[in-house]
Amino acid sequence: MIMNKTSGRCVWKMATLIIPGEWIRNWEKSGKHEFMQLCKDLTEKSDHGSQKLQTALYELCSNVIQGNLKLDLVTSVLGDMMDLREDMPSILADVFSILDLETGSLEEKNKRDHYTQLVGSCLSLIPEAILKERLDPETLESLGLIKQAHQFNQKIVKIKTKLFYKQQKFNLLREENEGYAKLITELGQDLSGNVTSHLVLENIKSLIGCFNLDPNRVLDIILEVYESRSDQDEFFLSLIKSYMCEPLTLCHILGFKFKFYQEPNEETPKSLYHIAAALLHHNLIELEDLYVHLMPLDATIIEEHKREISEAKQIARKLVMVVLPSDKSEDREKEKEKEEEKLEKPPDNQKLGLLEALLKIGDWQHAQSIMDQMPSFSSASHKTIALALCQLVHLTVEPLYRRVGVPKGARGCAMHALRNSRAPRPAESFEDLRKDTFSMLSYLGPHLSHDPILFAKIVRLGKAFMKEYQSDGRPEVKDKMEILLSCFLSIADQVLLPSLSLMECNACMSEELWGLFKLFPYHHRYRLYGQWKNETYSSHPLLVKVKAQTVERAKYIMKRLTKENVKQSGRQIGKLSHSNPTILFDYMLSQIQWYDNLIVPVVDSLKYLTSLNYDVLAYCIIEALANPEKEKMKHDDTTISSWLQSLASLCGAVFRKYPIELGGLLQYVTNQLKAGKSFDLLILKEVVQKMAGIEITDEMTSEQLEAMTGGEQLKAEGGYFGQIRNTKKSSQRLKDALLDHELALPLCLLMAQQRNGVVFLEGGEKHLKLVGHLYDQCHDTLVQFGGFLASNLSTEDYIKRVPSIDVLCNQFHTPHDAAFFLSRPMYAHQILSKYDELKKAEKGNRQQQKVHKYMSACEQVMTPVHEAVVSLHPPRVWDDLRPQFYATFWSLTMYDLAVPHSAYDREVNKLKVQIKAIEDNSEIPLNKKKKEKERCTALQEKLQEEEKKQMDHVQRVLHRLKLEKDNWLLAKSTKNETITKFLQLCLFPRCIFSSIDAVYCARFVELVHQQKTPNFCTLLCYDRVFSAIIYTVASCTENESHRYGRFLCCMLETVTRWHSNRATYEKECVNYPGFLTIFRATGFDGGNKADQLDYENFRHVVHKWHYMLTKASVHCLETGDYTHIRNILIVLTKILPCYPKVLNLGQALECRVHKICLEEKDKRPDLYALAMGYSGRLKSQKVHMVPENEFHHKDQQARSATPASQQNGPGSAGKPAASSIKTEEGPMEDGDRGKDKSQGIVKPVNKANNAAAKVATSNGNGAVNSTKAVKERDEKEKSGKEKKEKKEKALGSTPENKAENRREKQRDERLGKEERVAREGKEKTPKTDREKVKPEEKINKDDKVKAGNGDATELSRERDVIKESKSKEKGDRSAAAATLKSPTPRSDSVESERDHKRRKIDSHSSPSHSSSAKPSSRRSEVKRGVCCRSGQPRLPSPPHPLLPTLYCCLTTSSQIPTPSQLICHLHSSLQDNSNEPKESAPKHHINFNSVDRSKSRERETEKKETENAQGRPKEKKEEKERKDRKRDHIINDHEMNLESKRRKEENDSSKNGKSTSPTCDSPLSVEKEKSKRSKSSSKEKAESMKPERTSSGGKKESRHDKDKSEKKEKRDSSGGKEDKKHHKSCDKHR
User: Is pTM, for the whole model, over 0.90?
Assistant: First the structure.
């Protein structure tokens, strides 16, 4: 066997390296000689010679066994070799022993035989004793050296037993009392002198030799003496180290000592643990050897730990469960008995005793090994071990703590280091803590609570590290610092917080820990709190029990918490929260979510909390808000859950009252908005309201709203419901949190974007009511939050964070209203700062200089804004509105337009009263009186100074607007287009943004009117606002309805003021360009009073507006849709001070609202409450309502001697108004008709009919004309029937034509029936309403004529105009029958008639009722600026003087519009026709002959119009159309022959028909006169279109009238195709 140096292993190498094969083959010749020579050489070598010799002999014998050499040859060689060395027999015996083992395991028997023969031949060479010692007994038996192997083995055992185990002595001290006595004396001598372990060891050896002492017993006595003198570690350890020969022997002796104390009721002495620990520490024994001798077993320890955990959980369950009092007492007694048993017989755990001894001497490595064998924290749960480990940590951190952790002024007590050089090294730097300190603390875990001093030291070290971490920014140490930071976070998670839970109400430790935690970012802290709350309490039995006890105590306190005992309960809560805040707050929040009346007492009771507890409370609130198991909506999916509302209220109250960090809560709301969830905006709303004192409510009183238009001081004093004082500190904290975490602008942008996200992203799955509520909440919070930023951020901070308006809208996709809302304070700040700079640069006190500087400042600031807003809208928008006007509208506020003097005076008077009350109160101490008076006086002075400042500011702004107004509006397109864009892009978006903005919009319109702004039509603006509220109301949310109602109320206030007093009207409206009835492109010509709307006509127009409001309100109330009814009730409630003022309109509303009350009482309680509230307030307003004839002089024209067609103004405006009311009130439900009559609605209608009859007789035609017209109508019907019969005979020869004739006959019957209905409607329909549908009827007729007969297109312009007027009359007759229909079921025939009439109406106006459209889509139309008028149902309205003039004067845009724009424009034009005053009649000459010529085509036009209206929804096939054209061609040929005859007869009758009016007013004569009056109006229209026509006074028609007629013809000819498209789209929509 030789050593292989390359691999470091001992291997047996083959003998080929020593005995070559040639030697074996030539053994007799040369091999024997070479082998002998080799052996001699090996014998002479001193180093490794014997090993090589053994190898040579082994190879030689192996060749014999394998049969390569003969036995006798080898035997002779071995005999010769015996003389070479003395130990050659022993070497050869070793070789035989190895071969014995090898051959014994081989299966080849011949090799074993060869081995036996070889050994047998060498028996003479090797002594027999050596062979018996080294060979196997079986081999010896085969060789004959022994008789039986079995007997030989037994003999060996007996000899060994006798030799090694038979004792002559028993190692008793009395056997050698003198020797052992001297030994104990030697070990117990005084060791303070020059006595060394070496000298004592020599004496011990002498005693052993002299007295034949047992060495093991001597060692045992040495350990006994060492145990009694454990302070002499150095001496005894060196003695044992010198004396001991075998470590295992020492370990056995120690184990025997430990085993002695494992008997019942025995306790292992600490001195034994000490010497065992010392021997382990100095590596005199191994822990693995000693550990097996210790009790109890590891399995037993693990079982005990599991049992403790299960018991702790069981206790916790019992505390949570509801237990009867008797059961409670029994359970408590059992628990006490168990605890007493444990105290009586504490288990003697030798492993823990050894662990404690190891920790005391500083042997952390062996202690760590023992702790690893046990469950986590089970060893440290024993107080002695925990204290020992704490002491070791104390010694480790002492130098570093003395250097960086000791507070200023503190001395502390110095710790003495261990005298053990092998103990852990004390830490000199933070990096040294990673070696042993952090691991020791992690093993300690929650049981650091046993040593509060060490707890404070670790916390202070953490604070020192965090300061160094935050200040040291070197990149080379960054990685090390990050590792250390993670270590401190782990220690805080695993050690500090759990230890705090086990400390009993130690507020100082809580504050000390907060000193460290506040240096962590909030996300690190919240992660620690989450681990503490959700995982730590389940890791140890003690913590499980503590959690259960905390919950039980929290229940006890919360059951007894009231407003009266807040102080006492607060102290108890404070004590409980010092140690276990997460458990306490979790339970308290769960109670608050159920019982919101606990919020106030809970908030008041939290004043005894520590800073750490407040931070934990913030985390617990956020965790409760983010609980995924809780639904944030109620089960009906229409409202936000009450638990969320309660938590939001708690957030506002807690964060305002206590200094809690807001970053986490604000970031949570931001993250929720990023995720598209807007529920949690309720939290932000409450926090801003409570902390900043900014309320957002639409239920403001007028006084509060007025105060909100003033400065900040006035807002704080009179603008809110609750006077929230002392918000300076809390608002500052909120501002700092927003700025520190850079959340101010992101929150604004996310809220602005989320408004539409609520509708289009969240709204699909949610109830419409909830969507509206979330939208309102998002919007209100945005307004509230933006107001907070504007009032609290400094100018620099605000400008630095808010980008420009184009970036906000284009890059961040912020809606325009929100973008301007955020930018508005920035513009005001910039203008004021620039103004101050200019004043300082050039000192001048003259007012003119100041105004000039202010204008310069505005120009410098707003010019970039004017350029930026151009990109917000398409270029065509700026053809009517200047960017300057657009930016001015959006950048100003009510603060800029008016000074609320009454609000300032009111608040100043309040303060004066308060001062007087303070002076009169004798109970208040003098010093307090003085302070209160000073406070009130200071507030008074601030308010007065603020009022003066605002007055100067308003004067400057008004002067600026006066200079800018001429450049605001361009005249590139019609004023109708200008007003449309103003409404879409400015007025409507802003009036629903906030209550103040609603007032601002109304005030701005009035201001633009007062400034006499060119190209701004005030009448048209007001008309568009009041005439189309259905879709606007339907698209509003609940809060927007409040704001829209407030806007309408303010607009109505202005109109009512003008309506109520002629002097006011003439002062504020006459000679103003906004009240022109003829609109010229060049501007305002104030000298022509004929172009102005006089006072009485304005009163008619106001009545028309009230009527339109009534019509829209009734329509919304009758839809049955929740949103429509709710919103219109809110709007009606808001405008109640100004509407209704007319008695019959109020009665109509009262009837509908009463119906809503009856229907919704049990279905929708919220609608019922709204309706009941409005109904009661409406009844109280009845005393202020007036009859219609007092509201406007409706019978004025009947008393006039002048013909109505020649009056300047509305003509018969009073009659159609009453007639329209009749058409509104008449078709109500059958059950309500008697009720309507009893309420006095029919009386005004009858009066109106009588007045209509009188007016009609004064139009210049007598009764003869009326009777002739009736006769001619009858003749036309007969001739029509004859033509039908002839046509049927001519075309009915084939079967196909027969079937076609049958269908034609059925269609003609329906048309005849509808003609009769239309004729009746024609007699009742006002002229102005009939004129609404003229353009489209004319286009439809022209298309028919072109398709049927090419020659028909040669008709003159006069005939076209007359036919247009006739077709319009027929259209309006059908429209009149469909006004204000109640949705009650009728018979099929009546239903079909009504549907047909609606289709005729739809060919000129919007498709369907507002209830058929989804609110979300309507919202999107309104927000995008879509013309809502294209969807407005065209219901007849009372005529007023604006219609003819506006209709004739509309001009088309220079740009090519899209089809949708044309449709919107057409409807806007039609709507505007009902709003314009009539052209003065004396300008036109009445020619009755032109009307006579139009009668020949009346029948044909009427038939084709109805057929065209019916055929729109379904397009006929081409083959069918060809047949219709052929048939029409034949009919036209017949009628053209009859036309010339009729024209002659009608001319003759018109010449002879100038007779006076009849004296009787029979119903027949009234109908005749109505029809004749309508004809005369169409003649009037035709005459007005003729150029170069003189009037009755001999004057030529004005050039303006020519322009009007030319524009009218152009629009009629160009709009035909678009009208067709619109007709198709309407039918498609229907």
Answer: no
